[in-house]
């Protein structure tokens, strides 16, 4: 094997690996049927070596990126490496054997090159329904068996031949087989493409060169991350928050505690002190989700792709410097058979608390409190034919303000980065209609020199009776402001029905299998991010912009930002009163 | 110039076509006159662009070029134009202040986008559609109206009074462009049409478009974004095209005028004014087409093109002789979806006019700010005091004063040296030569990284590709870039400065007409198929009428029929060619078979038991153009021919070595001549650097292929 690869070849192979992963992702979402995959792109795809190191992964959502090695390690417990045959396709979703959570079904194919196993082509995608206790999503279920089909390293194809019994079993145990089975075929096509392309790459450059390049690229990513960790002063950094409840036991908050230990160029995230595991599905699979969240936090904080000029490849190297500890039996490392499907809000908070813990030593890289949540809604019902329809959708939230810029509004923050369902696509094939989708206007943004991002408001109306499950949080723990900035806002979930005249009611963030009536409108108002720096330091021109764009009122601008406006006749109504603003700000600073 | 007049024909006996390509710095022109015996005369010209109104230089250039060619402006039959007007508006963000009227409850579709952030692993990222929106929130006004899916029935009638009030508010605010974008208008455009009527009445001079007329497709964000971009650039583009038409008429040009589009085809002025969103890549598209044409002449089918002008460099990849067309679902401009077909071209702010400076942190930077044509580089002596890439070339002895633009533009090397000394060398404690070399190293590195992200990062190995460097400054950088990206070789086209203008004359008219359809192939009824036949007939008639208006005889017209199909329930379509003849049940079965094959090729799988739906019917009308034919050069076969040698001068190469270097006159080189570096090859609008250790070989039409000298001394 060559000792080192010349820099051009290294970049070419790195680029080719990246391109393969992108193509695998593209085939998967372009070919698939369900909107959660084809529109939201809630998926991941990539290539892996024999030690399950990630060689490349599609640029889809951070949650999927990094979770697949856990699947591969879990599968090895059922299928040792010696048992793979060319043309095998393995299906896997068991959360206690490395899966991210049960609806994220993994499809894995071995890559044989000249008859020898050289790696794996794999992908994961969120499936609409796997036959759980309630359609689509679940919260309040007793154990992992209520999550639906558990597929633990099963060969869906053996040496190229489909296992028809297993195929029919799966088809018979989902509420929407027409979508799930086609989506599985898209996953298989994507994995087959990865197998072919990786072999092509080895044909072009030779197996040794490709493997050596992959190894060098991993070392490079590791080195880049270690260099940044080393710049943080050694120490233990802690932050705490809480989740609203577990979706069953109302009023009982669940503490989350994060301790970041920096030692040289190593870092450990210790979640000791967080809630014990809960009796609902509101637990987090350790391998496939808890660890992945911690890896993400350091990449985003320290190797921020917006502020870094150098491209750093997405591979195993960036996981190596990060150690993750969560006591067995805690919410972040539950003991089987605890259910653990609804895990996203908790891991968002882990990332946000890592940022909060490190903010005092990383003021230029951190953010104020982010929404750090997820509103995952599943709507469903029965058609006249007796067939189910199921829609699951992700509602975005907002980010906290940053050292040099406002927090982005209405956006997928932290571990998530799916795309929304176009409202028009939804309306064309489901008995749901969206009544409102815009920026939340019932609260002001978290004030600061840079303001927090504004959350979303979305209202979905049932045009037929149905069911709904909502996995969400943060109706209670408000995103914090930082360095003088004010806090953001908590979420609200509201149900009303204009037709029946029932008064609107605010409900808990999480609910399971709620029966919806014709005309019920479910409105989600997401949390808003906190502010960064003192509001009196905000550029008055930006305060005017916020006024004209309807984010704040003139009174709020005066009281919080010390900015005074005067009427102008240009069709917009308001202009800056510079003298009065200087004067007011001086008085407010003196006070 | 040049090759032209060897077989002189009397003016006026053949079709006269003119190509005009406007860049940020220069406006390039080429005139071609066909004659009955098939020979062609070709003349070229170059004038400084007029930034405030590009049409001034266009018309001035056309008039001057006619004088050079000895023809009257009124004799021009066809004028083909590539313009950067639309692109510049987006880059400089100086488009119209646009108002939008949209459905109540959905004010922020353009602000939210698809709610996906542009970076996975970043906390500090920018969200361009929020930080620099095409339509600011204050100018997005909601009105009551509701159209319901799937059939388009009206749930809430359009509140006409609210539309009127919004239009009046826009009038008070002085807006000159308005978009109407309502949900589900692709199923039922009635509310959009009525709102547009009201807005046009209140704002008779404004540019008004509805989302469904710009691009009639499902998915609200993509449709609204495309319409918003159309309106943002609309008023300025329309004003520009009006000016152009008027000035051409005043100059006596009554040729039909065709505008280059992003998809590599041309369209009429009227269409372009109505739908300017199709012009966002009008400028660079000509260059890529000219690059492909040059590649064919050099027997190269794998090419990376880089068009280096004064302000920017445009990069594209030609694989196996084919332009790379972006998937229409992925087409974005400035990070915002724009659903129109376009060539895959990446632009970066690096060119001859890029300004070099020392930033506040003491770092040495070059570009993206450019001195453009006015004031231009310091050496122009037009008031530009800041050093540019061109000034670095002058200081290093690579650009000779007497050959710059054929001596047509006076340049003063002392001013270049002064600018570099004052702004770079002294602050950085370098010599002038070191600073000038640094300018080139930095700008070349910026360009090489951009090439890598368009090739290496997509799995394309530049070692199998020729780097074609054109634009006035292209061949000055070509070999340095070729080395940095490890290209197979470097091509300097015969007329590097006017490659894009020549590309305009080898493009074909290309008109696309579409109509939505929702016909299922396997179960369509005879009535469905006769509707399909009627639709194709209508689309083809429209295309034929347009081609006829271009003067293309019916027998020269070509039509391609395409159906964009998907499995019922999928979200993405694939293109399937429709067999000739009437569309029958048998045609439908054949279409289904073709769709399975395309699906299998694309994804590796096909579901043969699933229903396939035709979503969009498309007819593309085109015609084989009278392609430009340049005369073959006489065969030379000489090495460093003394007949072409001019003089020698000290020239500094990238390694810092200064060598007494001979100049060769490119017009005197013949086919199969070889020029060994160190050498500088000069011509009217461009200079080619052949460093020590490289040889340039002259191809049959005069293009140069430059490669490392193997075993040569």
Question: What does the overall shape of chain B look like?
Answer: globular
Low-confidence stretches of chain A: none
Q: Helical amount among residues of chain A, as a percent range? A: 25-40%
How many angstroms separate the termini of chain A? 71 Å
Features:
heterodimer; A: 591 residues; alpha+beta; 3 domains; five-stranded antiparallel sheet; 28% helix; B: Nucleotidyltransferase, domain 5; Rossmann fold; nine-stranded mixed sheet; six-stranded mixed sheet; 17 helices
Walk me through this protein's architecture.
- The complex is a heterodimer of chains A (591) and B (713).
- In chain A, 28% of the residues lie in helices and 23% in strands.
- Chain A contains twelve helices and 22 strands.
- Chain A folds into three domains: 7-221, no CATH class; 367-535, no CATH class; 539-590, no CATH class.
- Chain A is globular, with a radius of gyration of 25 Å.
- Chain A has 591 residues and is α+β, with helices and mostly antiparallel strands.
- Chain A starts with 6 loop residues before the first helix and ends with a helix.
- Chain B is of the alpha+beta class.
- Among the domains of chain B are: 4-90 and 240-279, Nucleotidyltransferase, domain 5 (2-Layer Sandwich), CATH 3.30.420.40; 95-234, Rossmann fold (3-Layer(aba) Sandwich), CATH 3.40.50; 510-623, no CATH class; 642-708, no CATH class.
- Chain B has 17 helices and 33 strands.
- In chain B, the strands form eight sheets. In chain B, strands 13, 14, 15, 18, 21, 22, 29, 32 and 33 form a nine-stranded mixed sheet that branches. In chain B, strands 3-2-1-4-11-12 form a six-stranded mixed sheet, sandwiched between helices.
- In chain B, helix 10 (282-297) packs across helix 15 (499-506) and helix 13 packs across helix 14.
- Residues 1-13 of chain B have low confidence and may be disordered.
């Amino acid at each position: 094997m060559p000792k080192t690869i010349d820099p051009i070849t290294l970049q070419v192979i790195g680029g080719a690996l990246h391109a393969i992963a992108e193509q695998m992702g593209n085939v998967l979402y372009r070919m698939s049927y369900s909107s959660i995959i084809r529109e939201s792109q809630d998926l991941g795809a990539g290539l892996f070596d024999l030690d399950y190191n990630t060689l490349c992964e599609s640029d889809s959502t951070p949650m999927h990126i990094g979770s697949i090695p856990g699947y591969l390690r879990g599968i090895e417990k059922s299928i040792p490496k010696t048992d793979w045959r060319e043309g095998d396709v393995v299906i896997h979703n068991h959360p206690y054997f490395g899966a991210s959570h049960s609806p994220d079904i993994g499809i894995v194919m071995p890559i044989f090159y000249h008859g020898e196993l050289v790696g794996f082509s794999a992908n994961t995608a969120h499936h609409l329904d796997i036959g759980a206790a309630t359609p689509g999503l679940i919260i309040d279920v007793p154990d992992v068996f209520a999550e639906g089909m558990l597929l633990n390293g099963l060969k869906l194809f053996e040496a190229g031949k489909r296992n028809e019994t297993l195929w029919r079993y799966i088809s018979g145990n989902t509420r929407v087989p027409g979508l799930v089975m086609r989506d599985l075929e898209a996953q298989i096509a994507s994995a087959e493409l990865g197998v072919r392309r990786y072999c092509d790459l080895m044909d072009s450059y030779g197996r040794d060169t490709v493997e050596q390049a992959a190894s060098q690229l991993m070392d490079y990513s590791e080195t880049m991350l270690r260099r940044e960790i080393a710049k943080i002063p050694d120490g233990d950094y802690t932050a705490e928050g809480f989740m609203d409840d577990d979706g069953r036991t109302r009023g009982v908050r669940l503490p989350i505690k994060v301790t970041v230990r920096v030692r040289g160029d190593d870092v450990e995230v210790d979640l000791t002190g967080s809630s014990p595991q809960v009796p609902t599905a509101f637990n987090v699979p350790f391998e496939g989700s808890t660890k992945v969240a911690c890896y993400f936090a350091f990449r985003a904080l320290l190797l921020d792709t917006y502020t870094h000029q150098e491209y750093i490849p997405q591979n195993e190297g960036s996981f190596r410097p990060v150690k993750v500890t969560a006591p067995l039996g805690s919410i972040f490392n539950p003991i089987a058979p605890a259910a653990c499907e609804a895990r996203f809000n908790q891991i968002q908070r882990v990332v946000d608390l890592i940022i909060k813990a490190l903010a005092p030593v990383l003021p230029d890289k951190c953010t104020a409190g982010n929404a750090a949540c997820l509103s995952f809604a599943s709507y469903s019902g029965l058609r006249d034919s007796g067939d189910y329809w199921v829609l699951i959708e992700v509602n975005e939230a907002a980010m906290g303000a940053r050292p040099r810029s406002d927090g982005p509004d209405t956006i997928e923050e932290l571990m998530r980065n799916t795309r929304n369902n176009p409202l028009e696509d939804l309306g064309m094939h489901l008995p749901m209609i969206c009544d409102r989708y815009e920026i939340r206007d019932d609260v002001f943004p978290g004030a600061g020199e840079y303001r927090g991002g504004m959350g979303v408001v979305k209202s979905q109306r049932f045009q037929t009776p149905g069911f709904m499950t909502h996995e969400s949080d943060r109706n209670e723990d408000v995103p914090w402001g930082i360095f003088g900035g004010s806090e953001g806002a908590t979420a609200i979930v509201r149900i009303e029905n204009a037709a029946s005249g029932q008064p609107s009611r605010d409900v808990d963030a999480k609910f399971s299998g709620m029966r919806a009536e014709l005309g019920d409108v479910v409105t989600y108002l997401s949390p808003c991010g906190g502010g960064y720096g003192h509001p009196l330091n905000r550029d008055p021109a930006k305060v005017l912009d916020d006024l004209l764009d309807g984010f704040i009122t003139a009174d709020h601008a005066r009281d919080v930002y010390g900015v005074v406006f005067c009427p102008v006749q240009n069709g917009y109504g308001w202009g800056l009163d510079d003298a009065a603003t200087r004067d007011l700000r001086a008085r407010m600073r003196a006070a | 110039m040049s090759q032209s007049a060897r077989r002189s024909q009397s003016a006026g006996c053949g079709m006269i076509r003119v190509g005009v390509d406007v860049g940020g710095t220069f406006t390039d022109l080429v005139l071609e006159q066909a004659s009955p015996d098939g020979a062609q005369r070709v003349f070229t010209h170059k004038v400084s662009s007029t930034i405030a109104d590009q049409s001034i230089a266009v018309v001035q250039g056309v008039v001057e070029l006619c004088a050079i060619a000895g023809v009257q402006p009124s004799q021009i039959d066809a004028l083909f134009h590539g313009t950067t007007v639309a692109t510049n508006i987006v880059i400089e963000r100086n488009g119209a202040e646009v108002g939008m009227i949209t459905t109540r409850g959905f004010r922020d579709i353009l602000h939210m986008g698809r709610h996906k952030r542009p970076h996975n692993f970043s906390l500090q990222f920018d969200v361009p559609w929020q930080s620099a929106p095409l339509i600011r929130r204050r100018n997005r006004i909601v009105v009551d109206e509701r159209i319901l899916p799937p059939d388009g029935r009206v749930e809430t009638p359009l509140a006409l009074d609210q539309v009127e009030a919004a239009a009046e508010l826009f009038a008070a605010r002085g807006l000159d462009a308005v978009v109407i974008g309502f949900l589900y208008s692709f199923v039922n455009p009635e509310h959009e049409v009525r709102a547009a009527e009201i807005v046009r009445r209140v704002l008779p001079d404004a540019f008004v478009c509805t989302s469904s007329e710009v691009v009639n497709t499902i998915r609200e964000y993509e449709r609204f974004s495309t319409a918003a971009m159309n309106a943002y650039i609309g008023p300025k583009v329309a004003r520009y095209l009006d000016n152009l038409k008027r000035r051409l008429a005043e100059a006596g040009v009554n040729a039909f005028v065709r505008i280059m589009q992003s998809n590599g085809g041309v369209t009429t002025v009227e269409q372009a004014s109505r739908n300017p969103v199709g012009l966002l890549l009008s400028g660079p598209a000509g260059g890529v087409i000219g690059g492909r044409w040059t590649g064919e002449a050099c027997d190269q089918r794998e090419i990376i093109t880089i068009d280096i002008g004064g302000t920017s460099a445009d990069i594209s990849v030609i694989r196996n002789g084919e332009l790379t067309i972006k998937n229409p679902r992925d087409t974005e401009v400035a990070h915002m979806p724009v659903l129109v077909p376009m060539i895959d071209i990446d632009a970066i702010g690096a060119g001859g006019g890029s300004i070099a400076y020392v930033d506040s942190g003491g770092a040495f930077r070059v570009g993206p700010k450019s001195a453009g044509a006015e004031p231009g580089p310091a050496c122009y002596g037009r008031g530009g005091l800041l050093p540019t890439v061109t000034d670095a070339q002058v200081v290093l002895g690579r650009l000779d004063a007497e050959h710059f633009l054929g001596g047509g533009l006076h340049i003063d090397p002392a001013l270049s040296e002064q600018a570099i000394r004052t702004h770079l060398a002294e602050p950085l404690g370098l010599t002038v030569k070191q600073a000038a070399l640094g300018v080139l190293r930095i700008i070349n590195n910026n360009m090489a990284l951009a090439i890598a992200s368009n090739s290496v990062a997509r799995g394309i190995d530049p070692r199998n590709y020729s780097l074609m460097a054109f634009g006035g400054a292209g061949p000055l950088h070509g070999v340095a870039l070729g080395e940095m990206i490890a290209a197979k070789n470097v091509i300097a086209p015969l007329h590097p400065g006017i490659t894009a203008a020549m590309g305009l004359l080898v493009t074909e008219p290309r008109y696309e007409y579409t109509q939505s359809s929702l016909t299922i192939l396997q179960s369509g009824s005879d009535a469905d198929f006769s509707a399909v036949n009627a639709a194709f007939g209508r689309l083809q008639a429209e295309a034929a009428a347009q081609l006829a208006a271009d003067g293309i005889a019916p027998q020269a017209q070509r039509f391609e029929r395409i159906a964009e199909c998907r499995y019922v329930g999928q979200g993405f379509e694939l293109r399937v060619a429709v067999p000739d003849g009437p569309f029958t049940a048998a045609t439908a079965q054949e279409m289904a078979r073709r769709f399975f094959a395309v699906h299998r090729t694309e994804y590796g799988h096909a579901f043969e038991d699933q229903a396939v739906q035709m979503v969009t019917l498309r007819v593309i009308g085109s015609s084989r153009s009278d392609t430009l034919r340049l005369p073959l050069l006489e065969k030379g076969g000489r090495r460093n021919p003394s007949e072409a040698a001019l003089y020698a001068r000290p020239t500094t190469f990238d390694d810092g070595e200064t060598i007494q270097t001979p100049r060769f006159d490119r017009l005197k080189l013949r086919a199969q001549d070889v020029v060994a570096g160190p050498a500088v090859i000069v011509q009217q609008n461009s200079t080619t650097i052949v460093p020590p250790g490289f040889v340039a070989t002259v191809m049959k039409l005069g293009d140069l292929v430059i490669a490392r000298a193997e075993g040569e001394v």
